[in-house]
Structure to design on (150 residues):
């Protein structure tokens, strides 16, 4: 694995984590949206990641057990899809709401703000780890270039 490919891997992770943070932000912003264009409450979205190169972590790990120098370590990650969470909506008793049914219950989005904040913290930490890995790779490139100057 070359130094430039490590930058590509880190960049792909940063891009994927940024998409995840955007989706989480959208979920939090719509946590109280009881009616969307289709007439239903907002449905929480989730991000699905997959390997960019098609290799699983397990296959890369198995291939490196013999000779770690001669094997590729993967091509990074990408967002495979953004899917709707099909868990049921919450029912909340709010008889004065214009969206209430005849019994006074309103269908609320299936977004749990606390869970979204935990996901946001995880995505932020993963993003920070990617930035750290990218900075380390840049520092290695600078050190490699300075070897011949002395």
């Amino acid at each position: 694995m070359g130094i430039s490919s490590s930058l590509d891997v880190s960049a792909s992770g940063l891009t994927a984590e940024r998409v995840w943070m955007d989706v989480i932000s959208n979920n939090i912003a719509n946590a109280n949206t009881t009616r969307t264009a289709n007439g239903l409450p907002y449905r929480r979205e989730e991000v699905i990641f997959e390997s960019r190169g098609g290799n699983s972590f397990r296959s890369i790990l198995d291939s490196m057990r013999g000779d770690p120098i001669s094997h590729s370590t993967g091509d990074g990650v990408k967002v495979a899809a953004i899917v709707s969470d099909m868990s049921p909506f919450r029912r909340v008793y709010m008889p004065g709401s214009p969206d209430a049914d005849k019994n006074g219950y309103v269908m609320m989005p299936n977004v749990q703000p606390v869970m979204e904040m935990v996901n946001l913290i995880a995505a932020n930490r993963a993003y920070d780890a990617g930035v750290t890995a990218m900075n380390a790779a840049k520092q290695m490139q600078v050190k490699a270039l300075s070897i011949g100057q002395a």
